[in-house]
Structures are given as C-alpha cells and as structure tokens.
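Posting this for the archive.
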Amino acid sequence: MSERLSTQISKYFDRLWPLNRSITGQGVRKTHKILKEIIPFKTLEIPSGLKVHDWKVPKEWIIKDAYILTPEGKKICDMKENNLHVLNYSSPVNKTVSLKELQKHLFSIKELPNAIPYLTSYYGKNWGFCIQDNIRKKLKPGKYKVLIKSKFINGSLTISEKVLKGKSKKEILFTTYTCHPSMANNELSGPLVQSFLYKKLLSMKNRYFTYRFVFHPE
C-alpha cells in the first residue's frame, strides 16, 4: 500500500470512527454520505414496517444519552465517552435500581477484562450496558441511577449500491455492512477496503467482469 493511499484511508477512518452506527439511523446515513465521497453509489431508504420475505424492516433507533451513576455519584458506562457502552437498540430507561437488578442488564467478558463488549437487542425489547469486567467486579451494593435516553420511530433502513460494468454481464458481488459502531476489524475495515477497491477496479482498462458493490446492515 502506498503512503498516500494509507493516509487517505486513515483520514476517512478518523471521520467514520466516532459515528454511532446501528441497523438504522442517522449514524448509518452519515457513514454512507462520507463513503459516497469515495464510491459514487446510489442510496436507497427502505421504510420501517415493510415486510421482506419473513423479515420486517425495523423501526429507527434514536439515542441521545446513556450512562450509570454509582451510589457515590460517579458516572460510568457513559456512551459519550464510548458508544459501545450502551446495548445497541436499547429501550429507554430512567430509574434507580439495586446492584442485583443492575447486574441483569450488564454485559462483560471475563476472558477480556479490559474490553467493552458489543451487543445488540435488535429484535427483542431490552436495555443494558456493556462494561469492562474488571470495573464490573468492583461495583459495590447500593442504589444505581440508570439512564438511557432513546426512542424508536418509523424511519428507514439505509442501503447503497454501485455497479461497475465490464464486457461481460457476469457479476462479481462485493458486500459489506455498515451497522456496527466504533470497531475497526468488525466494521470499518470492510466498508473502507470495499470503497477503495472500487477505485482500483475503476482504474482498470478493459474490465471483463461486471462488479456490484453493496453496503447494507447486518
């Protein structure tokens, strides 16, 4: 990889990294808008509630804030510090709970005590927080204030597509998903590699195959 290309990818990575992506929502639309600077695809918005075979396009998830206040008044699992902290697609909640009750809504990985896991609740109503296991183990009994400022609306699901024609009608399909938040290997690597692969193939003369590039959720 050339130094210039590496710099370009790094700049796009830095712009895309903080966006709070999910299966639907503004974070996804902003992601597609940025990627369109690289690959001039056509974007489709599929309305919530539309039935597709045995699946129905979900409602759009909007989240403004999420955190836990410990009995000492310390804020933890603050999504504004790391958007992985909130269970993706969490239902709204604003109440005080005991540690025992809170533990039912905490998710951590014992084998990776410093990691914040990524979990979703796309198709079942739930709320929760993803937390480092070493912090979870230090939580003391008491009353915890939990806030998730979210809502669900009839919106749309975003899909983008670009076809690069060749001599043949035979297609090679490249797909990648844009529904995960701030993760590198499990999210941004795919959309960025696919976008710059398009540029590489575009520069090729006498392409034989037709190439279809699709950016979609899940």
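The first strand starts at residue 42 and ends at 47. The two ends are 29 Å apart (CA to CA).
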